[in-house]
């Protein structure tokens, strides 16, 4: 969250730091949340976000910052369990955070897009890259990166919802 409020050059610096950190031996095998998410498109998308170390609350917070969508944590669970329908807006927002072309994700989920949305904001693109690369870090390494992001940010004004972007 702190990284997304940094200027682009500093977000790139964090990404370079993540790339430079050595991969440490994992003490346990990663397993997505042990929830019986459905194998439908919503369940697969939620699982993809879990592989980026996001729980339902993290999904809600991050999507609220980098996209126009603000949903409760339990709504992401409902999506994963097939109790909430995927809409074009949700597919667009999930695609941005996953770093996937929205047309490809729409085709994979069977959601019809009336029109191709604008490209995601730079913050969303960087969030996707940071999430993907940070998934391989140890907890100590992730804390180090987060502390650096907070120190680079240098303020405690909180988080802006729906960061501006194209």
Q: Mind summarizing the main beta sheet?
A: none
Oligomer: single chain
Indicate the structural class: mainly alpha
Order of helices and strands: HHHHHHHH
Strand elements, count: 0
Low-confidence stretches: none
Query: Beta-strand level of the residues, as a percent range?
Result: under 5%
Tell me the number of helical segments per DSSP (H or I, 4 or more residues long).
8
Number of domains: 1
Q: What is the 3D shape?
A: globular
What is the residue-mean pLDDT, rounded to a whole number? Answer: 85
Helix content: 40-55%
Please report the distance between the alpha carbons of the first and last residues.
Answer: 19 Å
Q: How many whole angstroms does the radius of gyration measure?
A: 16 Å
Overall description:
The chain is mainly α and 166 residues long. The chain has one domain (3-13, 36-152). Helix content is 54%, strand content 0%. It has 8 helices and no strands. It has helices at 8-20, 41-50, 56-66, 73-80, 88-98, 102-109, 122-134, 139-153. α3 (56-66) packs across α4 (73-80). The mean pLDDT is 85.
SSE layout:
Layout lengths: L7 H13 L20 H10 L5 H11 L6 H8 L7 H11 L3 H8 L12 H13 L4 H15 L13
Helix pairs in contact: 1-7, 1-8, 2-4, 3-4, 5-6
